[in-house]
């Protein structure tokens, strides 16, 4: 019989490959990013002077260049989060409910169809939707012209630019949420629905009283992951609107990129990125706390 230390050693060896990869591709980049953010780290200079928290102080110094770039970009990012996250949650759940009601032989087909966009790259996504949203020769405006409706400046004017970015994001990523919700719905015991039917409950009552409480943990997971993903938006505005019109859709990660490679100031760009990461963690924590508080009140 193995001793306890041998058993622990064996278990640790199974986790070792993941631990190494986690350290190399997560912990080390984060640690190095924090190190860079505390230095005057410029691309064209060999000297990287230690500046401590100066880059972070500049971000919160009212009127400074970094303060303007960070909070303007953050506001545009928050706008996108507010527009997209509720729809990613509701559309994902709605599609899951619809697909789950299909005959068994069709469910796999529709799950694949809805999930396929999630598997394509950002550049392919951008090409597809540039062809759809182009003002002069786009597919959508061509259809509108056929019914004598003036072309819509989807990517060059507000609020159409935000509408285009949000709809593109839903098409591209909602399939992932749908699959998560389908798996959660399949875990709800059928006995609950049968008992509710015997009691005379209708479809809405079953959904409100059985489905929603049963999938609450999964909904919280989808909410938090969708929020994190939406805060990290970059590809859609960078490839579709280029931050326009003006800079009204220029999100925070685009400003971080400009600071790093156009301004050649890697140190301050890293400070912006680290501050953004801390902000996302705080938002996720607040969401988690609020969701748990709501659950405790409901249980009470």
UniProtKB/TrEMBL annotation:
Stretches assigned to the ABC transmembrane type-1 domain: 74-287
Membrane topology annotation: Multi-pass membrane protein
InterPro entries: ABC_transporter_permease, MetI-like, MetI-like_sf
TM segment ranges: 12-35, 80-100, 112-132, 160-182, 218-239, 265-286
Gene3D superfamilies: MetI-like
GO cellular component: plasma membrane
Keyword Transport: yes
GO BP of this protein: transmembrane transport
Subcellular location: Cell membrane
Chief place where the protein resides: membrane
This protein's UniProt keywords: Cell membrane, Membrane, Sugar transport, Transmembrane, Transmembrane helix, Transport
UniProt keyword 4Fe-4S present: no
Family recorded in the similarity comment: Belongs to the binding-protein-dependent transport system permease family.
Name by which UniProt lists this protein: Multiple sugar transport system permease protein
Taxonomic lineage from the root: Bacteria, Bacillati, Bacillota, Bacilli, Bacillales
């Amino acid at each position: 019989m193995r001793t306890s230390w041998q058993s622990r050693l064996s278990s640790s060896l199974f986790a070792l490959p993941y631990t190494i990869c986690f350290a190399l591709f997560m912990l080390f980049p984060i640690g190095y990013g924090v190190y860079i953010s505390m230095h005057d780290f410029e691309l064209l200079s060999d000297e990287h002077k230690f500046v401590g928290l100066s880059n972070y102080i500049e971000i919160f110094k009212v009127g400074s260049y970094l303060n303007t770039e960070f909070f303007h970009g953050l506001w545009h990012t928050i706008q996108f989060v507010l527009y997209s996250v509720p729809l990613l949650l509701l559309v994902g759940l709605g599609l899951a409910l619809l697909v789950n009601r299909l005959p068994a032989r069709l469910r796999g087909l529709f799950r694949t169809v809805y999930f396929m966009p999630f598997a394509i790259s950002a550049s392919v996504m951008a090409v597809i939707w540039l062809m759809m949203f182009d003002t002069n020769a786009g597919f959508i405006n061509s259809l509108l012209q056929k019914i004598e409706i003036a072309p819509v400046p989807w990517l060059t004017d507000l609020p159409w630019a935000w509408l285009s970015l949000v709809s593109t994001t839903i098409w591209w990523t909602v399939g992932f949420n749908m699959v998560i919700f389908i798996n959660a719905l399949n875990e709800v015991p059928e006995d609950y629905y049968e008992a509710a039917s015997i009691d005379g409950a209708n479809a809405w009552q079953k959904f409100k009283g059985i489905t929603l409480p049963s999938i609450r943990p999964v909904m919280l997971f989808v909410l938090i992951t969708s929020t994190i993903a939406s805060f990290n938006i970059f590809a859609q505005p960078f490839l579709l609107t280029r931050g326009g019109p003006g800079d009204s859709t220029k999100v925070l990660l685009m400003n971080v990129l400009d600071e790093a490679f156009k301004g050649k100031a890697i140190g301050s760009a890293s400070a912006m990125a680290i501050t953004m990461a801390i902000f996302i963690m705080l938002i996720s924590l607040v969401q988690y706390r609020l969701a748990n508080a709501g659950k405790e009140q409901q249980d009470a």
